[in-house]
Amino acid sequence: MLINTKSDGHVHTRLCHHASGEMEEYVRAAISKGLEELIFLEHLECGIHYPEDTWLSEEDFVVYQREGQRLRQVYGDRIFIGIGVEVGYNPKQVPAILDFLKQYPWDRVGLSFHYYEIKGHHYNVVSRRKFNLEPLGKHGVERVISDYFSTLLEAVSLLPATVLCHLDAVLRHHPEVQFNAAHQRQIREIFQAMREKGMALEVNTSGFSHRGEQYPAQPILEEAIALGVPLVAGSDAHRPGEVGRFFERLG
Asked: Which residues are CB-neighbours of 194 under 8 A, at least 6 positions away?
């Protein structure tokens, strides 16, 4: 696989409210594992109505940027430290998302779509929790998956993202999840749009923990490669010890 396994381009910290560990702990873990590059990719969500915040507040982003600059000064001679953002796409909040992205310089802008709206409420499509899975299942698994891919395609077109994250993680914990021929065509359209923008596809190794295979699955990866979409590696670490996890399987 044509991918740089000396770079972990997707890690989170306690700042996102659902991970643990300080930024400096992640940097030290990356250095100890021989990585040459570590990119923090903290969560941005706009206008999401959900029981808990799994993303950074505006105040958190100030702390994040300040600490990132400090760590660059301390460790910059040993590893490149990137300050990035994982943008959760909300079709109703495009102007707010674009305005926020202009506030800071970003080394990477990741794109994801976590929260699906049903009658004014948002549900997390990558969650294993019953209060997410039941409403999404009742809404229709095939419909949610189709909407997920069509919304990602829209996001690729409208946002200045550089990397698409965990492409096929939608409803990963639902027993009925299955991609049909129409979904495969949607994925192909996403790849074509990404290629036109020079956007990379993330090979997310958290999948090895969740399902024994990276995100996205091998056939989807092979199609991306065939279409000329570049690949980057990301552990999606939520604890310092997860930095660079399973990268040896990407060779």
From this structure: 156, 164, 200, 201, 229
- What are the boundaries of each domain within the chain? 7-250
- SS3 sequence of 21-86: CCHHHHHHHHHHCCCCEEEEEEEECCCCCCCCCCCCCHHHHHHHHHHHHHHHHHHCCCCEEEEEEE
Longest dimension (CA), the chain: 53
Q: Which residues contact 218 (CB under 8 A, 6 or more apart)?
A: none
Lookup: tokens for 174? 């639902």
- What tens-digit pLDDT sequence spans the chain (251 residues)? 589 999 999 999 999 999 999 999 999 999 999 999 999 999 999 999 999 999 999 999 999 999 999 999 999 999 999 999 999 999 999 999 999 999 999 999 999 999 999 999 999 999 999 999 999 999 999 999 999 999 999 999 999 999 999 999 999 999 999 999 999 999 999 999 999 999 999 999 999 999 999 999 999 999 999 999 999 999 999 999 999 999 999 96
**Amino acid type, 161:** A
Is CATH 1.10.10.10 what the domain over 7-250 is classified as, yes or no? no
Residue 71 CB-half CA count within 13 A: 24
pTM above 0.85, yes or no: yes
